[in-house]
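Supplementary Note 3. Input sequence used for the single-chain structure prediction.
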Amino acid sequence: MESPSRVEMILDKLYNDPANPAGFAGVNQLWIEARKEDKKIRKKDVKEYLEGHRTYTIHRPRRVRFKRSRTMPAAIDVLSKRVFAEQVRSKKSKDMIPAFENILKRMEMHPHRIFSDKGTEFTSKEMMEFFKLKDIEKFTPNVSTVKASLAERCIRNIKQRLYRYMSEKHTLKWTEALNKIVDAINHSKSRAIGGLRPVDISFKNARRIREKIYGKIGVNPNVKKPRFQKDDFVRMSRNKNVFSKGYLPNYSDEILVKNKADPNRYRVRDEKGEKFKGYFYPEKLTKVRKDDNTSYRIEKIIRYRRKKDGNKEYLVKFFDYPDPEWIDESQFVLNIFFNVSDYSDNKPNKFRSHLAKPIQFQGGNWVCGLYSIQYPQSWAATIGTDEKQWIEIYYNKEKPFRCAIPKTTQLTPKGLSFFLKLSLAKVRKEKARKRREVTADSEDDLIITTEINKTKAPSKKRSKRNRTKS
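The predicted structure, written as discrete structure tokens, is reproduced below.
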């Protein structure tokens, strides 16, 4: 081997020449070109030369990603509040399983149940097999927004002490202090367990500590009456993020059937009998009434088919319902909205309106008519007067038709039906008479010549007793 001075001279000549392929290049390129000059030059000699070269060392590529401990899985015992933590390089199962092995070794006894969020580091196939092998029942929430609150609070405590340590020591090496901080937390008194330390609670005194904190087992003075009964119809609460608007719907359109009642939680199934995974708190459900008049919003009509009797069936997709269904054409109901606000001169006792969108009928014989008029209370109570109130309906080429308004609320469906038949019947062509003339051929065939419902304001008459005195 030649003397170091000769090697340095060769490398210096090659590296500092911008015209040379090794000029200001890396270790490998400089070594290849140096071996052309002298085959005895080793790669180690090239590295030692570049370590002493200022230009190379300050411009050397900086590695950002490399193998290091970046994750800290933490666990906490629900009763004793004892904390367990490990440092791992990634959230992959090959790193998480050894970390859980170390955590279980430090526990006095293996847990029967573990609750975590829906992160894949806890719910992967390998991790689920690991929990099954250890005879541990694994629980996760139904939605990703729900976290393991005790574990999240435990991580906050650890990070709070870690960041204070790093600020004081002017370092970012948290792995050196992790085990010491966890041990210090476990030897600190906790208000959640009555001022005891987590290390003071063991399997021997666990029952006594639990009764001291939560009361006797099987006795719960705060048991509430179930909000729902079996086979009630309910809607499920929608999952909203922090930016969702408060005026948007909070519950889904899908009507579900509650399967089993429990004072604190409920199981839910759909109308086909399929059970939903997990339990639901009463705050996540709202009770609804379902009968023959319940309507469902249609999101999309997929296709139709004709039955043997000539009627059509449509395959429709309902809002918030997963599977499409076939329904008969007679089950469709069209809601028509009016644009009352388009007329600025509208008043409670005199207003105009028109259809928001024209209706086009294609094929067949269609019958179109006014089905019902809805108002909250009696007309007089709504607008504050009972004089000269009517609804005026305009047709394209015919004279306006006036429909009288009832003076009082119709208390029964039969009374309202009879009034609508009288008010909306076909007007006779002859001149309207002052006296009401009704022709009834059958119960459903009523023809009336309508007139304006004119009623005078009640006059202030003196009572018979007052007239006698005067």
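Residues 343-470 form one domain. The two ends are 146 Å apart (CA to CA).
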